[in-house]
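The material for today's practical consists of a large collection of protein records. Backbone structure tokens are a discrete shorthand for how the chain folds in space. An example says more than a description, so a record of this kind follows:
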Amino acid sequence: MGERKGVNKYYPPDFNPEKHGSLNRYHHSHPLRERARKLSQGILVIRFEMPYNIWCDGCKNHIGMGVRYNAEKKKVGNYYTTPIYRFRMKCHLCINYIEMQTDPANCDYVIVSGAQRKEERWDMADNEQVLTTEHEKKQKLETDAMFRLEHGEADRSTLKKALPTLSHIQEAQSAWKDDFALNSMLRKRFRLSPDLRTPQGHCCQRPPWLTLFWKYLVELCHRESGLGGV
């Protein structure tokens, strides 16, 4: 689309590049066309994708995460140097309008009006997840030596509690660390196991440790014994 617009432009006979500069100025139009019809009010029409599941207050229908709308985007403030944008869109199932805006402090979107959020969030502290450091706490860590010392003690205490779990995870994963040795051991068991080489009746007995390539091995057993394919 961008390439087509760039090469298939008609220049009228009275077009003067020194006077008009571009075709948009010649036609008194904006490059974004209808999307910029309210640009004088600070509003730009964009394609907005619903960030989470909501219920519309107008029709009470569920709107799933990922549904897209033509939304009016407008800057309504700042969080430090990060702009806060508000999005206004019409529900595709009724005449109700939904307004949402960015929340840079929590890296999220908040509903201003027109809908209710389906609550699927959880507390990171209760879930024992790694918590992000807030901006105020970062500044305090840089300027307050006593607070930095107390924060370091708390971090060391948290690490001490988590060490047994981390050690258990590392120990569980260490069994699969040397994949070459495991593969060699598995191939050796293929060669030495009699159940894989001698068919019993019309099928081979499946070892409990075997999960991959079973169909191929059964066909190989039948082929070697002259029984044909399966």
